[in-house]
Amino acid sequence: MSKKKSNKANKPDWNRKDEERRRQGLDDDAEFASEVAPFPAAPVKTEDDAGQVGNELETTRVLGWVALIAAIVSLFFLPTVLGPAAAVLGFITFLQGNRTMGAWSIVLGLASLFVALFLGPYY
């Protein structure tokens, strides 16, 4: 009769590897996602910003209005220049948290660019 071969030789010995890591001082299971992740789109409050209340919101609001005005003006004047500018400013506004105004700026800016490039030659 034949003896069964054990599969122990084929499987990695995780306990042995864990012991090796502990011996080398690598036993911490800390995440490193913060080192790998991209920078946050929204501003992060730090201790240095404790005295500055409301600056980020005001800047986002002003940038959103500039983007929306550029998008509306692009419907009537220089759509190939102001349309993409409004879309880029709207995207930045969208990332900073003012999503409604950013989305409207993106849509209007790209719509005016589309009309100017694809429908404009027919008139």
From TrEMBL:
Transmembrane intervals: 62-95, 101-120
UniProt-listed InterPro entries: YqfX-like (IPR055338)
Keyword tRNA processing recorded: no
Annotated segments matching region Disordered: 1-51
Signal peptide (residue range): none
Biased composition (Basic and acidic residues): 10-26
This protein's UniProt keywords: Membrane, Transmembrane, Transmembrane helix
Protein name: DUF4190 domain-containing protein
Organism annotation: Paenibacillus residui
